[in-house]
Amino acid sequence: MFDMDASKLIYIQIADWIETEIIDRTLKPDEKVHSQYQLAELFNINPATAGKGLTLLLEAKILYKRRGLGTFVAPDGREKLLAKRKEETLRKLITKLLDEARLLDVDDNQLLSMIEAERDRKKEGLL
Amino acid sequence: MTVIKFNNVTKSYRTHSVLDHMDFTIEEGVLTGVIGRNGVGKSTLMKISAGYIQATSGEVQVFSENPFNSLKVSANSILVDDTMSFSDKLSLSDILKEANRFYLNWDAQLAQRLFDYFSFHPDVRHKHLSKGKKSTFNAIIGIASHCPLTIFDEPTTGMDTAVRKDFYRALLKDYIANPRTILLSSHHLEEIEDLLEDILLIHDGKIRFHGPITDLQEMLVKLVGKKVNVLAHTSKRTIFGSQVNGAYSEVLVENKFTADEKIRLSEEGIKMIPVSANDAYVALTTGAKGGIDDVFNRTATD
Questions:
Q1: Sorting pLDDT into bands at 50, 70 and 90, what band is A1?
Q2: ipTM above 0.90, yes or no
Q3: Structural domain A10-75, CATH architecture
Q4: In the predicted structure, residue B150 carries a pLDDT above the cut 70
Q5: Minimal Cα–Cα distance from B273 to chain A, Å?
Q6: For the segment B240-253, what is each residue's pLDDT rounded down to a tens digit?
Q7: Residue B289: is its pLDDT beyond 70?
Q8: How many Å lie between the alpha carbon of A63 and the closest alpha carbon of chain B?
Q9: Of A10, A37, A52, which has the smallest distance from its Cβ to B194's Cβ?
Q10: Hey, are the CB atoms on A99 and B267 less than 8 Å from each other?
Q11: In whole angstroms, how far apart are CA B277 and each of B22, B45, B190, B200?
């Protein structure tokens, strides 16, 4: 059965899948999204579970509903997702960096100057 | 609308009660998995719901009637299991023809397509089918009957892996096209967990859990990290299972952590990993007797 990232619950995987479709522009603003029944058949899961994935994105206002017509991508859905993913990914990387620094006894001042030095080196490389 | 209602239902065989003061309701259109260890009363519950046997005490209502001796329940339900019997006088194709007369919503086209897909011979008698083929044929009857209450008791017994997969896929597709109330039991929760909306978990004659399968999946969480760190976070919690691998340990606990606690967990390098419904089920139904290892440990120390 469906197994993209087994460490996540199936309805969260469904939401992730739709998010990626929006980010890579497979799904465009105001385009219709698969119904919970189509998703259920596509991923071989119960329609109620597929519906929970859609609900997550509706609550985050990435998608919107039109009565009787279905579910659509919000005009600013992609921007919202990009902002969310940037925030999440960067924060994760920073947490990892801080953990590693603590492990190696690198204090905050040292770490900050290392970040600055690395940024300067990159700038020089670009010139 | 409520399709099945059990109110304080007990079923005893001589002095042994299988179902012990059981209460639950099944709503219309929900696909529910009936899950429990061997001999826990899954089949008994299903037979009572279909009106095959009577409860010892308590009140059972199916389509608002006592299912025992109810024509309404009989006409609107089907129970598929490995004891389904058909007349030896009829060939398989005759059985399909009779089912067409018997079941109001019978989908003859679908039945025939499934019959051909699974390569049945029309002239064969039911009693001459192999175990797996019998189960497959019974499952076709169960799907094509489109009964408002469809009950499958271990429908995949004897089916090989490919046929089991096909059956679950066929059931899901048909359920999406023709939503109806379905009860499905299986020993292999991992095979059906994505298919289910709700789960009815029976243990020791009682309902241990009844609700959306996603709630069961989110009820417990696995903490994985260094033994000392994990211990500090789990000492005051109910532990549903644990495993030690060297300096690391995995512990199953209730998924009740505040945002602050979650931050502290990740700071200490402890991962929170979601639990499959199957793992949660095993954790919730492992009794005070411990695991199979304990049987051998006890023998060794005696």
A1: very low
A2: no
A3: Orthogonal Bundle (1.10)
A4: yes
A5: 6
A6: 888 888 888 888 89
A7: no
A8: 22
A9: A10
A10: yes
A11: 22, 21, 7, 12
**Helix ranges, chain B (H):** 42-49, 71-76, 92-102, 108-117, 131-144, 161-177, 189-192, 213-219, 227-234, 259-267, 277-285, 292-301
Tokens of A57: 């994105």
Q: Is the CB of residue B255 less than 8 Å from the CB of residue B220?
A: yes
By Cβ distance, the residue of A7, A8, A46 closest to B197 is A46
Domains, chain B, with CATH or none: 2-204 (3.40.50.300), 216-301 (3.30.70)
Q: Which residue of A has its CA nearest to B192?
A: A45
User: A46, A93, A94, A95: which to substitute to probe chain B, counting the most B Cβ within 10 Å?
Assistant: A46
Chain B CB contacts of A99 below 8 Å: 267, 269
- Domains in chain A: boundaries: 10-75, 78-126
Secondary structure, 3-state, B48-115: HHCCCCCCCEEEEEECCECCCCCHHHHHHEEEECCCCCCCCCCEHHHHHHHHHHHCCCCCHHHHHHHH
Tens digits of per-residue pLDDT, A56-66?
999 999 999 99
Report residue A10 as tokens: 């199936």
Q: In a 3-state reduction of DSSP, which class is residue B234?
A: helix
CB contact under 8 A, B176 and A41: yes
Least CA distance to A37: which residue of chain B? B176
Residue pLDDT, tens place only, B6-61: 999 999 998 888 999 999 999 999 999 999 988 889 999 999 999 999 999 999 99
Task: Please name the residues in contact with B87: beta carbons below 8 A apart, sequence gap of 6 or more.
Answer: none
- Give the model confidence (pLDDT) of B103-119 as tens digits: 999 999 999 999 999 99
Instruction: Return the closest-CA partner of residue B167 out of B132, B213, B129, B131.
Output: B132
| Cβ distance of A99 and B274 shorter than 8 Å | no
Cβ-based contacts of B214 with chain A (< 8 Å):
9, 11, 49, 52
| Residue-wise pLDDT tens digits, B123-148 | 999 999 999 999 999 999 999 999 99
pLDDT, position B196: 96
**Residues 6+ away with beta carbon under 8 Å from B251:** B222, B223, B230, B234, B239, B241, B242
Percent of chain A with pLDDT over 70: 93
